[in-house]
Amino acid sequence: MLEPNGARWLLLVHQLPPRPSNLRVRIWRRLQQIGAAVLRNSIYVLPDTPETREDFAWVRAEITAHAGQVSLLEANSIDGYTDDELVRQFQGDRDADYRRLAGDARRLLRRPRGRASRRAAQHPDLRKLEERFAAITAIDHFKAPAADEARKALEDLQMTLSFPNGASGAEDGSLRPEDFRRRVWVTRPRPGIDRMASAWLVRKFIAPDARFAFTPPQARVPKRHIPFDMPDVEFGHHGSDCTFETLARRFRVRDTGVARLGHVVHDLDLKEARYGLPEGVAVGRLMEGLRAAYTDDAELLEHGIVLMDALYRSYARDAALAPGRSRQRKSSKARRA
Questions:
Q1: Checking CA distances to 317, which of 34, 90, 217, 323 falls within 20 to 30 Å?
Q2: Per-residue model confidence as pLDDT tens digits over 112-163
Q3: Is the pTM of this model over 0.85?
Q4: What's the CA gap between 70 and 63, in Å, rounded?
Q5: Could you write out the three-class secondary structure of the chain?
Q6: What angle do CA 207, 213, 217 make, to 5 degrees?
Q7: CA-to-CA distance for 92 and 106, rounded, in angstroms?
């Protein structure tokens, strides 16, 4: 295997034997799976990273195992192509993958269905699309622009599956915000990402007049107070959901910005990488900074709420500017007219 020496590109050049007959298709699929771009005459290229070197090494091993010929080369430039042209080719390939996924998500959105029989997180079609998105992201070496389109389509699908049209509170377990106003919401001291985001969600979509208090998990909560993100309470972790996701589901908060904020909260709170939004690391750092800066829990929570609101507003703005939204609004107005 080649040793890294700072080269920008890796090239794989191969010649396959006529037998077995399906080898050519297998190698082509494998090269597609690792995100290699095809240049000409069976020449494939990847950016030079430790991961791509390993990917090409596996392809080479499979080719040589069937008596094929293969060479791995490294280069800082490729004759006939500028770096910008190669980057655009990689982005174009991934854009096509993302747009196919977004189209599949939209078709699933249009599919007739009755009341949801399972949670969105357990829906097999949604899980398959999420796995496809993760696989594309893993080989998206140059941040293809269509990634946001696919991500938003998945978020819309997730929200629709979670809260199908016509679902009633009595049947899907959703609650009425007006029943939870003029109340004190109680949680544990030293709030983190899930409690900050949950408090923001309560103020923004459930009870604008909500007040917050803090108590140790083992302490008795007054009868009229509402506990959240504490052990064995209604508004806490349930199944694979963090408290923020539980609140959004129970109160039927159908909002693309909330869904995307929930992805950041989920990964940070549960220490997962299910959604892998790039801003998650920065948000986590900001949470650590807030907790270090404020010793008073109430002050810490209020600053966290401000941060969550800023993040939500950025997502809401992205959703408003997404391709097709303005056309959809104009079409809707035309139908009403």
A1: 90
A2: 654 444 445 447 888 889 889 989 999 999 999 999 889 888 877 877 776 5
A3: no
A4: 7
A5: CCCCCCCCEEEEEEECCCCCCCHHHHHHHHHHHCCCEECCCCEEEEECCHHHHHHHHHHHHHHHHCCCEEEEEEECCECCECHHHHHHHHHHHHHHHHHHHHHHHHHHHHCCCCCCCCCHHHCHHHHHHHHHHHHHHHCCCCCCCCHHHHHHHHHHHHHHHHCCCCCCHHHHCCCCHHHHCCCEEEECCCCCHHHHHHHHHHHHHHCCCCEEEECCCCCCCCCCCEEECCCCCCECCECCECHHHHHHHHCCCCCHHHHHHHHHHHHHHHCCCCCCCCCHHHHHHHHHHHHHHCCCHHHHHHHHHHHHHHHHHHHHHHHHHCCCHHHHHHHHHHHHC
A6: 115
A7: 21
Sequence letter at residue 2: L
